Amino acid sequence: MPLTDASLDELVTYRPDLPAPPDFDAFWDRTLAEARAAGGAVKADRVTDRHLLRTVEVDDVRFPGWNGEPVAAWLLRPRGAEEPLPVVVTFIGYSGGRGLPTDHLFFSAAGYAQLVVDSRGQGHDTPDRDAGGGTQWAKGFMTRGISSPADYYYRRLMTDCVRAVDAVAELPGLDPDRVIVAGGSQGGGLTIAVAGLTRVAAALPDVPFLCHFRRAAEMCGEGPYQEIAEYLRWHSRHGVEPAFSTLSYFDGVHFARRATAPALFSVGLMDPICPPSTVYAAFNHYGGEDRTMTVWPFADHGGGHGSNSVAQLEWLRERGLAP
């Protein structure tokens, strides 16, 4: 796999001028206020025995997300740990859901609680009931409701993710002052969005997706950004600028500007799915002073794999966020 983008020297200074929509903050303030006003209960049922686990406790969680609709999550905690625990709220990559608790044992093995959030419509346990008016062209989610920010799919999913952080205060054994948001690819883009929309203690966006949409759609030969290019191929006469206008309300670059929590990003310089320049666009605009990029020079979209997880634990420990 060759290098897919600019040189590292060019990337570290890549800071494109991407103005946010004038009503960006008002749009998100209104969206989150409406979701919170919809109410709904946080529920957690103990299901450890179903999964034959002996060192962690597992709760099957439902919390209110977009429009108060229930969103599924797993809550994993090391058995017998002293509480309240720092909690890693984890968002999932594109086309995946929360899966099984046994898919997510790393952070509990390191002593953290972990809330693993299902992705509406992508996982099996959280339907996207309001699939949105407006247009969808390609398979997948990138163009679902793209004709309007109000209808766009990621408005609903990003709202769910913010509400997951809200739910931490109502779940047992967790420290709401030590909430860490994390995820890879789509999960990384959602991590940046949540860090920009609400208060968290730290953010761990790994090879993040959903950043610098226009550049990504123009240069990607693999992955979900191609859904945007395919849509615009058939709507090029009148649809290009309206589509990118909608996407600008969901661009990680704009959320990054508004984020202040310490952040550890990662990037693979041979990533054909999330071009390194799109990752650096968000990183170089990040509002928090404590920001670090872990660079994997020969990595594709897998980034540093398990090595990146170890780097995350070390980084969290250095910032006093170890259990």
From TrEMBL:
InterPro entries documented for this protein: AB_hydrolase_fold, AXE1_dom, CE7
Single GO biological process annotation from the record: polysaccharide metabolic process
MF annotations from Gene Ontology: carboxylic ester hydrolase activity
Residues the record marks as active site: 185 (nucleophile), 271 (charge relay system), 301 (charge relay system)
Binding site for substrate: 94
Pfam families: AXE1 (PF05448)
SUPFAM superfamilies given in the database record: alpha/beta-Hydrolases
Domain Acetyl xylan esterase: start-end pairs: 1-317
Domain of life: Bacteria
Protein name stated in the entry: Acetyl xylan esterase
